[in-house]
Amino acid sequence: MGPYQPFAKLLIIAGIVLLAIGLILLAVPKIPFIGKLPGDILIQKKNFTFYFPVVSLLILNLIIFIFLYWLKK
Predict the structure, then answer these.
(1) What radius of gyration, in Å, describes the C-alpha atoms of the chain?
(2) What is the pLDDT of residue 23?
(3) How many structural domains is the chain composed of?
(4) Contacts of 55 (CB under 8 A, 6+ apart)
(5) What is the 3-state secondary structure (H, E, C) of 8-43?
(6) How many CA atoms lie within 13 A of 12 on its CB side?
(7) Residue 15 pLDDT exceeds 90
(8) Does 40 share its domain with 72?
(9) Which of 62, 64, 58 is closest to 24 using CA atoms?
(10) How confident is the model at residue 28 (pLDDT cuts 50, 70, 90)?
(11) What Cα–Cα distance (Å) separates residue 45 from each residue in 36, 38, 52?
(12) Are residues 40 and 23 in the same domain?
């Protein structure tokens, strides 16, 4: 077992995570309900738009929590 083996594993895991995030970001515009759920805040004025996806973030948080919980077991 070499001295760099833990670092190599960390880099591999980080690469897989970055790949997954990239694929998710490519797929997000194709998912119709992301960002348009009831409870997401959208304020539009003449020259100002404020958008805060509260419910979308909560659902995303729940999905990540369940995935990490499953990964830990």
Answers:
(1) 18
(2) 87
(3) 2
(4) 37, 38, 39, 40
(5) HHHHHHHHHHHHHHHHHHHHHHHCCCCCCCCCCEEE
(6) 6
(7) yes
(8) yes
(9) 64
(10) confident
(11) 18, 20, 15
(12) no
Q: What is the mean pLDDT of residues 7-19?
A: 91
At residue 18 the predicted structure's pLDDT band, cuts being 50, 70 and 90, is very high
Mean pLDDT in residue range 37-43: 84
User: 40 and 26: one domain?
Assistant: no
Tell whether 8 and 26 lie within a shared domain.
yes
Whether residue 16 is found in the same domain as residue 43 = no
- Tokens of residue 41, six digits: 């805040």
Which letter, b or e, does each residue of 25-52 get, where b requires 16 or more Cβ atoms within 10 Å of its Cβ? eeeeeeeeeeeeeeeeeeeeeeeeeeee
- Could you list the residue range(s) of the whole structural domain that residue 44 is in? 36-73
